[in-house]
Amino acid sequence: MKRFSLLAVGTIIAALMFGMASCSDDDDDNNDNNPVVIDAIELTQAMLDGSTSEIEIDVTGTDFPHGGPAGLTGDDTFRDIYTTMADGAASAQPGDVITKRTYVITDGVKAENPAVTFAMVKQEAGYNSEDGLGDWVWYSISSSSITDYSTNPNGLFENAAKVDDNTKCAGCHGGLGDEDMRFTYPS
């Protein structure tokens, strides 16, 4: 009888614990009042310097819908696009960087150094996808006369600023839908 009682008590305790665990699984900790927060993967100088795998060089002719850097048109610039992504990668992975160096054209000649560089940093899924930003964070890196572009080909991180205005970078890239918000892909 004692054996049966201990077995019955053990079974009841196990059932109660299982029931309590099941109830806690029903709790919705991820509701609108308590959203999941995903930390940003922040751009670093090493990430900028690592974005050197060529995707496309001397892209020109397409106007910037938002006016472009310093009011330049697509015909006034060459854009060279580089990445940290693996060759042939079908999609960007968190931490991947794509940079676009924008050079001014004067009398048909491309400037030696970029006027501005833009960088996209891929974030973890869910970082800002609900905002139509495709889990990317964009940066603008100002040109600097003191930058050694042979050492820092995409400029200096200290000259980088996040682009939070969704009518700028995301305004164009957002129209690409399921294309991971990229116009070009590694070969």
Task: Tell me about this structure.
- The protein has one domain (45-176).
- It has helices spanning 2-26, 45-50, 169-173; strands spanning 53-59, 77-83, 97-106, 109-110, 116-122, 136-142, 160-162.
- It starts with a helix and ends in a 14-residue tail after the last helix.
- The longest helix has 25 residues, at 2-26.
- The protein has three helices and seven strands; from the N terminus they run H-H-E-E-E-E-E-E-E-H.
- The model is unreliable at 16-30 (pLDDT under 50).
- A hairpin with a 2-residue loop joins strand 3 and strand 4 (109-110).
- Strands 1, 2, 3, 4, 5, 6 and 7 form a seven-stranded antiparallel sheet that branches.
- It is an alpha+beta fold and 187 residues long.
User: What is the string of SSEs from the N terminus onward?
Assistant: HHEEEEEEEH
| Integer count of domains | 1
Distance between the termini: 75 Å
Helical coverage, percent range: 10-25%
Low-confidence stretches: 16-30
Largest beta-sheet characterization: 7 strands, antiparallel
* Average pLDDT level: 77
Q: Radius of gyration in whole Å, from Cα? A: 25 Å
Based on helices, strands and strand pairing, what is the structural class?
alpha+beta
**What percentage of amino acids are in beta strands?**
15-25%
State the shape: globular
Secondary structure: number of strands: 7
Total helices: the number is 3
